[in-house]
Structures are given as C-alpha cells and as structure tokens.
Amino acid sequence: MTRVQLVVRGGTVVDATGTRRADVAVGEGVVLGVDPGIDVPRGATVLDAGGCFVAPGLVDLHAHLREPGAEEAERVETGARAAALGGYTALVAMPNTDPPMDCAAVVRQVRELAVGAAAEVLVAGAITVGRRGEQLAPLAEMAELGVRLFTDDGAGVQDARLMRRALEYASALGVTLAQHCEDACLSADGHMHEGEWSSRLGVPGVPAAAEEVMLARDLGLARQTGGRLHFLHLSTAGSVDLVRSAKAHGLPVTAEVTPHHLTLTDAAVGTWDPVFKVNPPLRSDEDLEAVRAGLADGTIDAIATDHAPHPQEAKEAPFDQAPPGMVGLETALAVALTCLTEGEELEVAGGRPHRPEGRQGGGGAALPFERLLGLLSWKPAAIAGVSNRHGGPVAPGAKANLCVIDPTAEWVVDPARLASRSANTPFAGCRLKGRVRHTVLGGEAVVVDAEAQR
Prior knowledge:
By secondary structure, this protein is an alpha/beta fold.
C-alpha cells in the first residue's frame, strides 16, 4: 500500500468536474485520496489550504525561457521557478532561442536543462529551419521525442505554400502547429498599435490587419488540409470574429490570449515606457472588449503568458529600439483573477488603461473562478497534449500536479522580488488580488507559503 507523504488540508477542490470541500492525500507522485478530514500519518508533510482553492496545476502554452543563447535574460531554471510561484506545473518553452529549437539535438539540450526544475518544461519545436520560413524543420525527429507543438513564434510563416506543406506534414504526424499571426509586410517598421494613439504620438503603427490577414489565410489552409492549428496571443476584434466563425464551421483550431491584452490598451504607450512595448502590440479599447467577449463565449480557449524576459538595459533603450515583450509567469493568475473575476481595474504606471465610456473595470459580466481556472489549466493542458499528467481532475490515481490558490490574498507587484532574471513587467506597483500559496509538482511541494523550495 502506498504511503501518504503529503496532505493538502482544509481547502476547496476545484477542477473540471466541479467544486467540493476536501483534503487531498498524496504519495509516490500521485493523488491517493480526496475526502474531507483525511488523517495525517506521522512524518507526512501538511500544506495548509484553509480559505483556498486546490486545483490542478496551471499550464502555460507560451513562455520564452531564452536558454540557450540569452541566459542574461532568463534561464530554464529561473523561468521554471517563476512558473511554479505563479501556480504552473507545466509550461511550453518557445523555440526562438540561439540556436533555435529546430532539431532533436537542441530539444534534448533544453530538456536536460530542465531536469530538476520546479515545473515541467515542454518544448515547442520550430516549424522551419532556423525559424527563417524557408525550409521545413525535421518535424518527425522532434515528434519522435514527444514534441507536440511546433511554431516559429516571433515570426509568422510568411510563405503560404510552405505553411500548407507544414500543415499536411503535421497532420500526418498527429501534432499541432501554433502560428504567430503577423504579415511582415503590413507590420514592417511598426512599434505599437496603428490607431488613435499612434497618430497622437507619431509612432509608426502595426495595423490590426497584419494579424488578421495571416489568420484568415491559415484558416483557409486548415480547411484545405485538415491540420490542427493553435493561434498564439491573438489581440484584435477581427481575429476573435474569424476564430468564432471557424469554430462554428467545425475547423480544428484553438486560440489563446495574454493577460496584458485582456487588461491594457495602447493608451499605456503614451507614457513612452518601453515596458509597454509588446508583439502583438497593446490594442484599442474595442479590441480589448472583443477579446474578453471571446473568452466569455468560449471562442478563446486559453490564457497564456507570452512570458518574454529582457535585460534591464535592453528595455531602457528608446521606445523604437527596445525589444518587445513582458514577463508574466508570476502575475498571470492574479491579473486575470483581479480583472476578470473580481472586475477590478488596475492602476498602471502613467494611469489606468482606457475603457470605453460607461464601462466599469471588467467591461461586462465577471468570469466565474471555475471558468478562469479552465482557461489556465485543463484547457491549455489539452492543447499541449499533456492532459494525462497536468490539468486533469483531482482524483485518486491522478498525477499529483497541483496548485493552492488564496483568492483573497492581496499583494503589490515588486519587479525586484520576481524570480525571473528579468523585471520587465507592466504591472509594477499594481495591487493584485489572489496569490498562489503552494504548488505541488509530482507529489513534491516546490512552493510552500508563496516561497520557492527549489
């Protein structure tokens, strides 16, 4: 009989099957029991979950861990630690490293770097060699290693014929392509959303069409090939409409949005602070409202961080020279909980993100906590192909990958205290509601009382 080694006591279990008050007993890396009042054997670790929700660990579909090649910004170890502090037990590492993850050798290297990390690191392989969009990468050899997602993230595959071939190949392999939707000709030389604020500031803009044109093209290719497509960090009202229509017609597509596209608009760029520079750019009030509506009606399947760390000196460059990107692994859950479930409005540097006149905070009905967890846990786990060990129901026999969330804890984001090697967060100084108290990976407590144990 397997010995109980850890008990999560006094919480409310929330998963895809519902909500119930129960303790959770863990041993040998799996859940042994989910019942009220579980006896704690001598020597077992007890994690207090009083007043908290006990949920399957969160799964991030979109994180840049920078290693190999840009270790000054992030390492696999530090990114995984930040993830665990944010409640994630698994995250997908994007392939725009140096060298890029476009072959089995680099995939193996990143996996070796992840051994012993505080979260499971899943590797996304590149679609094309060097992410240059000219020649298909050896998808089969990476798929043989268990890679389930492929993307050239940071650059969309510009060649439609090549993308068609990639979808046909991926369909035969049973893997999913994840597209960064950006027509490079339309977005060239742009540094923020093309709209009222880019005109005011005199900054070249990236039109919504840059995203929507490629999205529409790839939906047509998915219809023709039957290949599965996941759309990364969508940001415009037109994109949400296109995905909504595609799903209504039965196309095998999924989509994600980021916490920053759900809470910030291009008005924040009026501060000229490069921390608000991101790709795709922060969009208009109308786009923000449409993206939230897409979450509410099920058009959007997941919230992903697009965690993109950069060294301080890079982000201190002039706005047009600074690289795009924001860190987000430690703040994603709390930002989403504060704004989408609690309906509060964040105070960001330089003032509040603009909202359409007459709208308050959440811009509509609050998203139930259970729905929010689905967008952060079991739905992305299914897209990543790891539902067998992450995001599943908290039940006997399941892998013990869990997070314990205190929904009432309030905290202020201090960039200097983040576990990431970089501090480029747009939410510095924001008061957030909701914090991860504990994270359990493979039956081991890797975060206890909001402190990393690895």
